Amino acid sequence: MTKEERIENIKRISGTDVRKCMKCGKCSGRCPAFKDMDIKPHQFVTMLGKGEIDKLLESKAIWNCLSCMACVERCPRGVAPAAVVEAIRDTVVRMQGKNGIKAEEIPPIVDELIPQQLLVSAYRKYNK
Amino acid sequence: MKDVELKMLERAKQLLESGEVARVIGWKKGEFYFDPAPASFETVEELGDFVYNGFCGANLSKYLIQASKKEGKTAIFLKPCDSYSFNQLVKEHRIVRENIHVIAIECQGKLDIEKIKAQGISAVTEVEEEGESVTVSSLYGETKLNKAEILLGKCASCKGKTHQVKDEEIILHEMPAPINNRFDEVAKLEAMTEDERFAFWREQLQKCIRCNACRNVCPACSCVKCVFDNPASGIEAKANDDKFEEQLFHIIRAFHVAGRCTDCGECSRVCPQNIPLHLLNRKFIKDIDGLYGEFQAGETDNGKTPLTSYTESDVEPNNALGGEAK
Amino acid sequence: MQEVTTKKKEFTPNIVAFCCNWCSYAGADLAGSSRLSYPANVKIIRVPCSCRVNPTFVLKAFQQGADGVILCGCHPGDCHYVTGNYYTRRRMALLFNFLNYMGIEKERTRVEWVSAAEGQRFSAVMNDFVKTITELGENKRLTDLRVKEGE
Amino acid sequence: MQRIGVFICWCGSNIAATVDVKKVAETIKSEPGVVYSENYQYMCSENGQQLIKQAIKEHNLTGIVVGSCSPRMHEATFRKTAEAAGLNPYMVEIANIREHCSWIHKDMDEATEKAIVLVRTAIAKVKLNAPLQAGESPVVKRALVIGGGIAGIQAALDIADAGFEVDIVEKNATIGGRMAQLDKTFPTLDCSACILTPKMVDCAQHEKIDILSYSEVEEVKGFVGNFNVKIRRKARYVDETKCTGCKICMEKCPSKKGLNTFNMGLNNRPAIHIPFAQAIPNVAVIDPEQCIKLKTGKCGICQKFCGAGAIDYEQKDTFVEREYGAIVVATGFKPIALDNFNEYGYAENKDVITSLELERLMNAAGPTDGVLLRPSDGKHPKVITFIQCVGSRDTSGCGKPYCSKICCMYTAKHAMLIREKYPDTEVHVFYIDVRTPGKNYDEFYRRAVEQYGVDYIKGMVGKVYNENGKLMVQGSNLIDNEQITIESDLVVLATAIEPEPSIRKVATLLTASIDTNNFLTESHAKLRPVESPTAGVYLAGVCQGPKDIPETVSQASACAAKVIGLLAKDKLKTNPCVAVPDEMMCNGCSQCANVCAYGAITYVDKEFRLGGGKTEIRRVASVNPAVCQGCGACTVTCPSGTMDLKGFSSKQIMSEVEAICKK
Amino acid sequence: MKISYYPGCTLKTKAKDLDKIARLCASVLGVEMEEIENWQCCGAVYPMGTDEIATKLSAVRALDHAKKNGGKLLTLCSACHNVIKRTNEDMKTNKDIRFRANNYLQLDEPYGGETEVLHYLEMLKTVVGFDNIKKAVKNPLNRKIGAYYGCLLLRPSGVMAFDNPENPTIIEDFIRAIGGTPVIYPFRNECCGAYVALKNKDLPKQKSCKVLASAKEKGAEEVITACPLCLYNLQVNGDGILPVRYFTELLAEALGV
Q1: Same domain as B133, residue B236
Q2: First to last CA, chain A
Q3: Fewest beta carbons less than 10 Å away: which of B287, D55, D57, D649?
Q4: For the segment B108-153, what is each residue's pLDDT rounded down to a tens digit?
């Protein structure tokens, strides 16, 4: 896949039109995980728009986005930054060996109280 | 069906006798059992000829254009599908609603004598309908037929049992459910190549003898004077001069009733040349549904039609092919 | 350029363009004053608004031997008469679809929105339309056969 | 028999270089009906026109075709020429052989051949032309202004100063509108009341102006020059002619807990009240929802105390009907409701306010007498945060897709005034873009930053919440790529504005077109910006689109100029190319009226003779030629071809089609 | 009244009691929750990628099953509710997903979003009615309780259509119905830290503490939630600032079940 194709593909997976963004920063103004995002929500949108996906694919933010949809809910232009983050994360985890969490890492961190839901959701988010 | 007929007759008598209405529009016996004709009854005596049987397929609503302007009230029997035409005519101010008493009547689907004849049965004397089957009596005996096979074309895509308008009803039995297949034939034509479609319509339309039966029966073709008879229109024509004009006539007619045609199917029923004229109207209906949202003419007696309304985001004509917004 | 070797005269289509007075006719004027050429077989009929174009005019044009008919009006939302072209858009979408249903080539009919400022676009649209119709060939299906007799 | 003359213009070499004009003129001579054909260098010149006039007279021409430049250029010229020679001006057709022919073709043969076809086409049309007479309709020399804000006031004053009668219909108890609520105005910071109230007084004292306050337009009939308008005068329970505005009733009224709408509900007012000190008319009004007497029948205190005997609890709505030649719509705006923007905590926190509420808090006549005190505890706010674009530029469906245009400037104004008056106050402004086009506007905004030290933060606020009594404003600072939280005492929302909701009814009554945002549509965005497509209706102020006071006033004066121009005429000439129904054929189906954008089509019941001495009454269409604009939408909608368009009749267009297609 | 019920993974394992309590309460209130057959885990997170299909199928299966059994599908866990409701919306409005899902599942009759997805809270509000709950309460909870909504019930509001996304009221109404006093605090719709808790404890800790601190500041004595994962985060990562319980536990307490 060429880089251009990959960019198009990410745009398609995200299902969001990044050109609608008017760069107001409301998404980043609301993001509860802002401090843990090395690339901020609004940057996901603008960088995808500019085709700067290499940095996005390497970002730590894709593992820290909470998918809380606050950015989606607030966007005045109907853009979905969280969907861009997810499209990038999907693209990463679909690559071989790029899963965000490995099966063997799980047993040591599981405690008595951890609900199934946490395991399933984290596994769904981080792995393919 | 006989019980329905009796009930209708009884009601017609009451209405005329009491003077509530000045006339009743229904069907009267024809020369044969299978050719009842629309009729206006003004006296109880005239009701002697009253009939309602499986061959009363005619849509009576158009007769109201004249009748509703006459002195006194007019009662009319409307089948579910006829009620759409009624509403459409009210919407277009062609009939005066206050002067009409609508009696919604039961319909189990009407029969096509041509289809019965095609089964080798002639000289039909009576027909007994029972659910899905029909017993046809003729001078030569009785035959049991499958009703679905001898329904009128329009009844084979029945719009269902709901009357869109009524002042009272005579419904004694459960009526059939809608048959949602009316676009199947249109879709079949759409799937053909342009050449095939042209050949199809060429063959069909060259049969046209411009008898104007379709125009005369059509409740949407209710103009005081037809555009084809209007010298100012630039398309005035009395008869087909050439092959083009057959097409011209039917294209313009279909366009003029687009958004107003309730798909009552009368045009095809009365065509002496058996041209499937309803397929022209249904194309418009299908495209309107697909491009501008579902619309059934005659569902209400007010409001605008799809061709007299718009949205700012309507599909562009160059992208509208196939009848679905892209 | 390659010489045309056939003896037959090359087919030049006859095109009727209905243009609304306020936008498209003015756009055509601008194409003219900007010297932006398009083939001479495009002839323009001026109408106050695209919504004045009756389907009968379109059919009449074909009957009389036109090979292509194009309607031009103001862009939707810019109609001089506020809503006229919205009605045009619906009417012609349905009519052209219907003609295609009758077996008439969809390419023979077209609607384009051209503003008074779009001389360039007017010329481009006409060039493209003539090209399309030339490739499509003569209109035989909607013609009154007597019109072309004696050719 | 028609006698057609054809005149082919060279246009110097503009046409003649590519079109063989002589050949065209020669060829056309043999066209049936053509009795004269000539070519000349410049047909539009004095001599050229003379040539046409002479030919008309000498050859007794019944119609002429000029082959020349675009009709958009010289159709009017040649119509006048024909008229001068005694030929009806509508018996002229132009064949456009310049823009549509000589200028776009290079090949002489090809261009000449096309020119001949174009001239033939024009001949085919002119043969079917009918002499048309521009109709005339009288003009009622009185104007109606709907809305008594600054737009309506300005328009009314300008029209009245020109000597015409004007009525202002205002739905509130006083004129003044939104501007009366403002404290200072940008970019000069003069006090709103100081510049507005003199104008209000002028209106009240002007002998040509009649203010119908507490009134609404109920029904509009007629058309340009001849509107007939029914106005509802709502019961105010106070006799306008008797009330002296002494306000004793306000003091004595026991029901004092009504929300003071003029102060944006920030304090209370009595049931009987005068909206504000400078109200025009300075007459009290009773809120029937709040008045004890009107609700329970017991009380009557105000009546007892009114020295003028002005109180009338029995008053009912009344109606007046008046005739007008022109109507100005100036219905104004309101800030949007903030229900969809709970992230800013407006509903839960008293100290989150809108900018218009801030105006009242800063106004000397406001609830705090002009001292900036926050609503929750009446304390001086030390940190104030402004949020711009609240509900503007929002395509998500929560707000408005457009820019409200005035917020950047008034926010700068607020920030500046606060810093000026209370220098120890910290002021922050969250913005997406600062938009300040306009004379001295950007300078104004820069003063806020440079001179007053207002902290402008590029970014948007995601959440406002209350923590330990402080308003926490959490947002992004895009320049620093940070998320910041500002502990504030007061938060001000620069709320989007929208047209006053009553506009919908007004638009329907006037058949004025309205866009998806409820702004009235102008006739042409650039060239006819103050005219509604409905003739005789003009637009001033925010009802047409967001705008500030200077723009509103300009537009109102422009409206006035248009209205004066209209009212100065005794009669209006109407475009004769209008739709005309053939009553004999009309079905009365209403389809044509459904597509008419101007409401030009009505229906009448007419009696027609049938055969045999019988008659029939039929509903038929009737077109008002003064209102019809001649688009032709109705002609295509009509299935029977009853509707035709003069000057562009079906037969004319058909014959043009035929002339072009014939090979 | 019988309603098809989708329990979801957590309520069948770690939080069995919550499932049991919910059923008991419902039956006291006249609603029988009928667990659908052979349900599969919904995946706990809604896959936003437009090309995801397999990850949506279990939700579609459950929805289709409910369509044939009364037309309503009851959920108790917010995550299940979010996934199933959003998938249902896809099936209703997204032609492409509808086509691909139906193509994959080959159901007798294609599924097109016909089922109504109902959260337990919505069931209490619309089917039972809070007034009826009030009447059924035996032990009114005279406590100040903070409702914690989190994300999944509310957002994206266009699809979830659960309540006002910034100023919801349904859990507060519920608290009133069981005799408690709701405490409104600004962080009731902020994220608890969600699934990130598996890898990164700091973020959920910060978020959960902030939520509970905010509730405490506004006077809450206790916080309730409708999501097992929120429950976990607030309990384990919330520094014990306030006790946190599942909303059905309080319902049971109030009803005396």
Answers
A1: no
A2: 19
A3: D57
A4: 999 999 999 998 888 889 898 888 889 999 888 889 999 999 999 9
Residue C50 has pLDDT above 50, yes or no: yes
Tell me how crowded residue E99 is: count the other CB atoms within 10 A of its CB.
12
Choices 3.30.420, 3.40.1130, 1.10.3470, 3.40.50: CATH for D4-126: 3.40.50
CB–CB contacts below 8 A, B to D: 67
Contacts across the A-E interface (CB distance below 8 Å)? 137
Sign of the CA dihedral running E236, E237, E240, E245: negative
Q: How many domains does chain C have?
A: 1
Chain C residue at shortest CA distance from D579? C52
- Between positions 54 and 113 of C, the ones with CB within 8 A of D are 54-57, 60-61, 64-66, 80-84, 87, 91
Restricting to C residues 131-150, those with a Cβ less than 8 Å away from any Cβ of D are: 147-148
Closest chain D CA to residue A40? D481
Contacts of D595 in chain B (CB under 8 A): 308
Confidence class for position D549, pLDDT limits 50, 70, 90: very high
| Rounded distance between C-alpha atoms, residue B323 and residue B289, angstroms | 8
Chains A and B, touching by 3 or more CB pairs within 8 angstroms: no
Domain that residue B213 falls in: 184-319
User: Is the CB of C98 less than 8 angstroms away from the CB of B283?
Assistant: yes
The CATH number assigned to the domain holding C77 equals 3.40.50
Identify all chain D residues contacting B234, using CB atoms and an 8 Å cutoff.
650-651, 653-655
For residue C137, list chain B residues with Cβ-Cβ distance below 8 A: none
Numbered ranges of CATH 3.40.50 in chain D? 4-126
> Rg of chain C over CA atoms, in angstroms?
16
Question: Angle CA(D245)–CA(D247)–CA(D251) in degrees, nearest 5?
Answer: 170
| Higher local confidence (pLDDT), B319 or E183 | E183
The H or E element that residue C116 is part of is: none
Contact A26 D458 (CB under 8 A): no
The answer on B140 and B230 residing in a single domain is: no
For A40, the closest of D393, D397, D481 (CB atoms) is: D481
Rounded mean pLDDT of D517-543?
89
Q: What kind of fold does domain D337-497 have according to CATH?
A: FAD/NAD(P)-binding domain (3.50.50)
* Cα B9 from chain centre: 23
Asked if B192 and B128 sit in the same domain, the reply is: no
Instruction: Give tens-digit pLDDT for D455-487.
Output: 999 999 999 999 999 999 999 999 999 999 999
Give B-chain residues touching D654 at CB under 8 angstroms.
234-235
Q: Could you tell me which of E199, E242, E246 has the C-alpha nearest to residue E221?
A: E242
Question: What are the start and end residues of each CATH 3.30.70.3270 domain in chain D?
Answer: 579-646
Model pLDDT for residues D552-611, shown as the tens digit of each residue? 999 999 999 999 999 999 998 888 999 999 999 999 999 999 999 888 999 999 999 888
Q: CB distance from C45 to chain B under 8 Å?
A: no
Residue B117, H or E segment: helix B113-118
Is it the case that residue B187 has pLDDT exceeding 90?
yes
Domains of chain A in start order, with CATH, are 3-95 (1.10.1060.10), 99-128 (no CATH)
Of A109, A113, A120, the CB nearest to E232: A113
In the CATH scheme, what is the code of domain D142-233+317-332+500-567? 3.50.50.60
Is B225 inside a domain boundary?
yes
Strands (E) across D526-612 are located at: 537-539, 571-573, 579-581, 601-609
Decide: B222 and D587 in contact? Cβ < 8 Å: yes
Q: Where are the beta strands (DSSP E) in chain B?
A: 23-28, 37-41, 50-51, 74-78, 100-105, 124-130, 133-138, 141-146, 168-170
Tokens found for residue B291:
């491009």
- Looking at CATH, the fold of the domain delimited by D579-646 is given as Alpha-Beta Plaits (3.30.70)
